[in-house]
Amino acid sequence: MSMKQKNSDTLSIQKIVDALELEAHIEGGYYKQTFKASDSREISTPEGQRVTMTSIYYLLTRAEPIGHFHKNKSDIMHYFHAGDPITYYLIYPCGRLEEHVLGSDFTLGQKFQLIVPGGVWKASTIGTKANHGYGLIGEAVAPGFEYEDMALGDTQELINEFPKHKKLITDLSRNRKL
Fold it and tell me: Which of 7, 55, 149, 155 could form a disulfide with 35 if both were Cys (CB 3.0 to 4.6 A apart)?
């Protein structure tokens, strides 16, 4: 790839970040909350009162190609918007591993939407040599997202829990807790 193409990708990504007012996310990539349901519509959860739904934009880039392993207590619907396909790796509490690709080419088995149930570990990646240099999705979270309802995977704890997925966990997790 030429320096000119890399600079062009960087400008395109920066334009997306600026236009959508994205900021760095602790999981990797960039995000912005775009919707939070009205406080008058809160529901009771074991963790306390939560709004019924929140929504965000989430962007992975060539420079930030990994959404590190984490899990949420709420169910999350992911919607593909633009750019390169994003691969999701899901590890269920029973140890089952699933791989899904969100993208625009359904003839290749890519999906426009993906539901990740609460309590499932997930990580996401885009190819570092992909055409656009970014992948943009939207997420709807119900009940609404709160940081205390999310856990960022600790590499060693995940390996201890799911030893058969050691390589994937090592590649796609940060060695720290939230």
Answer: 55
